[in-house]
Amino acid sequence: MCNECEKKKKGPSLLQKTRNFVGAVAKHVATGMEKATQATQQGRFETCLDCEHFNAHPLVCKECGCNLLVKTSWASAECPLKKW
Q1: SS3 for 72?
Q2: Which of 33, 31, 40, 49 is nearest to 72 (CA)?
Q3: Distance of CA 74 to CAs 10, 21, 28, 50, 71, Å?
Q4: What is the pLDDT along the chain (84 residues), one digit of tens a residue?
Q5: Which residues are paired to 67 by β-bridges?
Q6: Three-state helix/strand/coil letters over 8-46
Q7: In 1-84, at which residue ranges do the beta strands (DSSP E only) sit?
Q8: How far apart are CA 66 and CA 84, in angstroms?
Q9: CA–CA dist 35, 16 (Å, integer)
Q10: For 75, how many CA atoms within 13 A lie in the half-sphere containing its CB?
């Protein structure tokens, strides 16, 4: 398997996951820690379920490494692939 394929299979490095999470937390705090509506959360999560970067165990995005239950619940959060 090629190096790039292997990286995509594993997801981002721990350092990159940390950067992604810290950035998401900072944005969440800066925007008043607003939660997304239940309908928005559900729609986002359903989009993630159909995505090729969805990892069910643990429940994370293989593109950014974020926990999807947390990320889909924050109003300020965005999909790194612009799917929602």
Answers
A1: coil
A2: 40
A3: 25, 12, 7, 20, 6
A4: 565 555 556 789 999 999 999 999 999 999 999 999 999 999 999 999 999 999 999 999 999 999 999 999 999 999 999 999
A5: 60
A6: HHHCCCHHHHHHHHHHHHHHHHHCCCCECCHHHHHHHHH
A7: 54-55, 60-61
A8: 15
A9: 24
A10: 9
DSSP state of 13: -
CA–CA gap between residue 71 and residue 24 (Å, rounded): 8
φ/ψ of 61, rounded to 5, equals: -90, 125
Beta bridge partners of 54: 61
What local confidence, expressed as pLDDT, does residue 54 receive? 97
Q: Residue 60 is encoded by which pair of tokens?
A: 């994370």
pTM: 0.83
